[in-house]
Amino acid sequence: MAYSQPHPRLSLLSNSSQSSVDQFSPTSSSTRFSVPPTPSIHSTLGSVKPPSGPRPNIYDRNLNKTRTSEVSASAFTFLFSEIVQYTQKRVGGINDLERRLNTLGYRIGSRVLELMAWRAESSSKAPKREIRLVPALMVIHTQVWKAVYGKAADAIEKSVENADEYMIIDNDPPIERNISVPRDMGGLSCSSFTAGVVEAVLDGLGFPARVTAHGTPTTQHPCRTTILIKLEKSVLEREEMLK
Question: Which portions of the chain have biased composition (kind: Low complexity) (predicted)?
Fold first, then answer.
């Protein structure tokens, strides 16, 4: 699936781009996923003490206290690469692989939205649900992206030709940094996982849409990805009524 000719668009929001990105390596004959090196840990016998009691259950942790916790980039990369390779062996083509990654991302997105809603309700501030489209897209651009990837997306754009299409731009998607796409799978976009996350959040907020991911590389940003959001007709009709 390629997206070499994006629709003309009007930029709604743009952040400063990052200075360096990793490039695709099209020379590999099979999909390879590189795990960033981690510093070695040297220990001597007897230096590590066994736990004195039972290990705490992860489900007993306070969700508000873990909101600033970070996941190792190496661990995330390794896990995601294993998911892609496991799925790749069980599909018949690129479209099927992207569809399954989208389905996986949808499951994650529904849980991310539930967690964000719970934290907003339990905080001192009064929780707020966005009922207009652009503020809802801003929530995804900033809060959802930070919750999943630790950073905000780079821009939100609206299609000039099609009123039902919006785009979220990420110049350096974290899940694409350590992926080498082979020549025979040049149209593959592993950001279909992110598209699934976005689709789940939009559905949960009451803005049903079909979301897909497309590689739109530039000279400065070889891994640049566009998340294309195609809204259902009912969303546009409601937006007209709320004006």
Answer: 10-30
122 belongs to a structural domain: yes
Q: 109-153: per-residue pLDDT in tens?
A: 999 999 888 887 777 666 678 889 999 999 999 999 998 998 999
The values of phi and psi at residue 14, to 5°, are: -145, 130
- Helix intervals (H) in 162-206: 192-205
CA distances to 161, 223, 242 from 80, in Å? 35, 17, 41
How does DSSP assign 18-79, residue by residue? PS--PPP-TT-SS-EEPPPP-------TTSSPPPSSPPPPGGGS-TTTTTT----HHHHHHH
Q: Give the pLDDT confidence of 34-72 residue by residue, as tens digits.
A: 444 444 434 433 455 555 667 767 667 666 665 556 677
CATH number of the domain residue 135 falls in? 3.30.1380.20
Residue 190 lies in a domain: yes
How many C-beta atoms lie closer than 10 Å to residue 72's C-beta? 11
Q: What global pTM score does this model have? A: 0.74
Residue 88 lies in a domain: yes
Residue 106 lies in a domain: yes
Q: How many residues does the chain have?
A: 243
